[in-house]
Amino acid sequence: MDRECNLYGRVFIECNIEARTGLHIGGAESSLSIGGVDNVVIRDPMSNRPYIPGSSLKGKMRSQMEKFHGLPQNQRIGKATIHTCRSASAYADCAVCHIYGLPGNMDFSTSTRLVVRDVQLTEESVAALARAKTDLPMSEIKFEVAIDRVTSAASPRQMERVPAGAVFGPAELVYSVYEAADLARFVNLVEGMQLLEDDYLGGSGSRGSGKVAFTNICVSARARGSYTTRQSYGDAPFADLAALTAGLEGVQAWLTTVGVPIKEV
Q1: Would you say residue 226 lies in a domain?
Q2: Residue-number span of the structural domain to which 19 is assigned
Q3: What pLDDT does residue 154 have?
Q4: 202: left (phi over 0), alpha (psi -120 to 50) or beta
């Protein structure tokens, strides 16, 4: 039997991502030629500027959500293992698989709700990093020493990081609404953002890197029936994630009555 797929609308979260500590999201080994650095950051090949891949943001949020909800790690993806619902009944109650997606070969899966775009450095941060005369273009070199606990031999290494204070933006998270339950699951999306902010993004988080903060957060929506019109929530952006969380009840009420009103379609 054919299944219907109804896209009722999309919710957009646009924000800045501020590096509170140095940020290292690894690049390809082919980039090792710059300065002989052991661990380089990923860069846009067109501009040579560091950026945050949408896959890094989405993957970290998913990983944190899986841990927070105690979900079994049962699906091998390359070198990583993630959670995947194995039955339609489990999937029906799983916010993680609805929001972040399932492999296409699952016959009960539906469309992935969340799209996360790549995030570039703001022009203000590019200019500030240029004035700072960093070790490499728009990045710093952090020296670390690994100590062999048996021989006490020291192994120095270098890691490239985007310095603390750099701002990436605007980041864009696009959340599609296919059923009424998706409006309730919007809180789980914000929950994932909070879990990421409380943890770290990229590598070497346990050694101080990767603390980030979401700031200047705007929420808007497009609804079926008037999709060319984008409606914004509130008169001003939320200053930070704490402010969005405090106002989340109002955002959800707006989505159900004005933003993406499924009952009116």
Answers
A1: yes
A2: 9-260
A3: 64
A4: left
pLDDT tens-digit series, residues 26-62: 876 544 444 556 689 999 999 999 999 999 999 999 9
State how many domains the chain has: 1
User: Does 4 reside within a domain?
Assistant: no
- Using an 8 Å Cβ cutoff, are 57 and 196 in contact? yes
Q: Which residues contact residue 172 at a Cβ distance below 8 angstroms, ignoring those fewer than 6 apart?
A: 12, 13, 14, 116, 117, 119
DSSP letter assigned to residue 22 = -
**Is pTM, for the whole model, over 0.85?**
yes
| CA–CA dist 169, 52 (Å, integer) | 9
Burial of 218 (0-12, 13-18, 19+ CB in 10 A): middle
Q: Rg of the chain over CA atoms, in angstroms?
A: 21
Q: What are phi and psi of 189, to 5 degrees?
A: -65, -45
Q: How far is 206 from 191, CA to CA, in rounded Å?
A: 22
Q: What is the pLDDT of residues 242-260, one digit of tens each?
A: 999 999 999 999 999 988 8
Find out whether 189 and 99 touch, Cβ atoms under 8 Å: yes
Residue 73, pLDDT > 80, answer yes
Q: Is residue 172 exposed (0-12), middle (13-18) or buried (19+ Cβ within 10 Å)? A: middle
Q: Are the C-beta atoms of residues 27 and 40 closer than 8 Å to each other?
A: yes
